[in-house]
Amino acid sequence: MFRVRDDEPGYAFIPEVQAPEKNRYGKPIELVDADDALAGKSLNINGDVGIGANPNRYKQHGFYFNADHCISCHACESACSEKNNLSPHLAFRSVGYVEGGTYPDYHRLNISMACNHCDDPVCLKGCPTRAYTKFAEYGAVLQDPDICFGCGYCTWVCPYNAPQLDPVAGQVEKCNMCVDRLEVGLKPACASACLAGALDFGIIETAPNNRDQLEHTIPGFPDPNISQPNIRFQQTKSLPREMTRADTVPLRYERDEQGQGAFKTRVRESGRSREWNLKKLRSREDPLVVFTLISQGVIGAFLALFLGPLFGLQVLAPASHPVAYPTLLFALLGLETFALALSTMHLGKPHRFYRAFNNLRYSPVSREVAGIAIFYNLLGAYTVLTAFPGLFGWLPAELLTGLQAFFGWGAVVAGPLALYFMYAIYRIPARPFWNHWQVLSAFFGNMLTLGSLTVGVSYALVLASQGESYASLMWALAWPVTFGLLLEAVGLYFHARDMARQGGEGEASHFEQRTTFGKTYAARNLGLLAGLPAVIGLAGLGVDGWTGFTAWAIVATLIVATAAVGRALFYALVIPTTMPGAFFWRNRGFQEHARETGLAHMPQVGVVPDGH
């Protein structure tokens, strides 16, 4: 148990107060009854099997932040870091701010934020390894770094940037509500250390002494309906009509005079010019750019190979080219193996990859991994049975044919289903730029386009080397290629329109797309538009021979490059609904500056040098 000092000040103890039966979300504050089976169990803190004597042990607790009093001294950050022995590049609690007005009537609103131990913790549902648990004790959402394998998905779905991915240790860690202190009746270290009395802690829906408001939002705070956070605010001092962030995120917060005076998130347009910024396309998610594109292309190519003969393309039948057909299957299997290895090495702890299956009930990551794994194994089985039928000569011919059909049709079903699960990963309310059906149209559009081109160009090479015509094959495959390009183009049009209309972080991402990456964005769109007439033209002209193959190879290269740039933009542009940062801390612009200038090599700066 945590040791209480003999001279512990009174303000460090959680006060005994009466609480309502339910919180503002309609959830009971009393999480279990006294006679419930969950009651009376040890949290095993530091291996101690003792049970705390806190009489409100099974009530939902939460933080209380009075923005009027916060002076941005960062004592809460320091106390948290000291209590949890954190590295300089990690902070379970951080203080950011928004500012507005002009001198001398300048206003700054400081915001101290950590994990809000939500009623509906999206981190818990998203984590594929089940490293998260919401406990009946204090309603704490706790995370076990030893179970985590460092995929970082919880950092995507959390609207408050509470889970911290440690790129050095390869795992996620977060605020644990200082449950060891709660067990002996003490407030968390951050609340106890607050100099100005701005940060407090207690049973949710109860206000500390001399406090009045119990608001569940504040300027810069994400939509509380995403996860139903257990934090309450007070902010009574008048603020300017418009507040802006100190970090480089192009957002401002504007009071809605038509409504109840709440602040709406708007884009802060600063007259940026259109740039290429190709270096900024690189991100930690580069392996996912390759993994998603290859997986979509491999699935599409297998569908074309397997279903092509059923639609009259006998040239794609295994018997028509008994060497080319299994060779292409093995190439697809090799590509998918490379993609899976790349995505596995993307994890902080690659050797723990098998834990990805632990949360099939809730996590879209678990379902995607399962879907891709099933497709991969079905593709492998079909490839071996098709390439080496002699190895299975001891089987009856009818059974061998039946097994080939079973594994083939199984892969046909599993592939698109896996892509749907892949799409579901990105429907994240905390990342509005991704939370759109365009992701589905892009993934399936790439499946059709990249897959059909892979098969078409591969067979064009084989047929051209044999002096045979491939014009009719390319004419047939041009249809799914064209449809895939159109599907992606339509999705991109509606995505850009909807992002501009909805405002907030989604519009800010689109603003970055049109300015910071404006020229790259235009080049991607031109490449997509150029691909359509090029495919239709080549197919319509019926080009053949080595000249035709060269033309098709150039068009395919253009389309693949366009897809790669588009996918890199997809990851580089997203702006999450995180809390505002400060000028140095939690500021992506400063992090980039620190890495470029070498400041990141100074540990006290709090920036990991390699940016991974």
Distance between the termini: 37 Å
Number of helices: 15
Count the strands? 12
The topology string of helices and strands comes to EHEEHEEHEEHHEEEEEHHHHHHHHHH
Q: Round the Cα radius of gyration to an integer and report it.
A: 28 Å
CATH fold category name of the largest domain: Formate dehydrogenase/DMSO reductase fold
Top CATH class of the largest domain: Mainly Alpha
What is the residue-mean pLDDT, rounded to a whole number?
A: 93
Biggest sheet features = 5 strands, antiparallel
Q: Assign a percent range to the helix content.
A: 40-55%
What's the multimeric state? single chain
- Overall domain count: 2
The shape, in one word, is globular
- Proportion of strand residues: 5-15%
Give the structural class. alpha+beta
CATH architecture of the largest domain: Up-down Bundle
Major sheet: arrangement of strands: 3-2-10-11-12
CATH superfamily of the largest domain: Formate dehydrogenase/DMSO reductase domain
What ranges have pLDDT less than 50 throughout 5 or more consecutive residues?
none
Provide a descriptive summary of the structure in words.
- It is a single chain.
- The chain is α+β, with helices and mostly antiparallel strands and 612 residues long.
- It has a five-stranded antiparallel β-sheet with strand order 3-2-10-11-12. Strands 8-1-9 form a three-stranded mixed β-sheet. Strands 4-5 form a two-stranded antiparallel sheet.
- Strand 11 and strand 12 form a beta hairpin.
- It is globular.
- The two termini are 37 Å apart.
- The mean pLDDT is 93.
